[in-house]
Amino acid sequence: MNLKADYFFENIYEICYDELYLKGYKCLIYDIDNTVATYDEKTPSKKLQDLFNKLKEKGFSLYLLSNNSNKRVQIFAEN
Question: How far is the CA of 55 from the CAs of 13, 20, 38, 39, 59, in angstroms?
Answer without folding.
Answer: 12, 11, 21, 23, 7
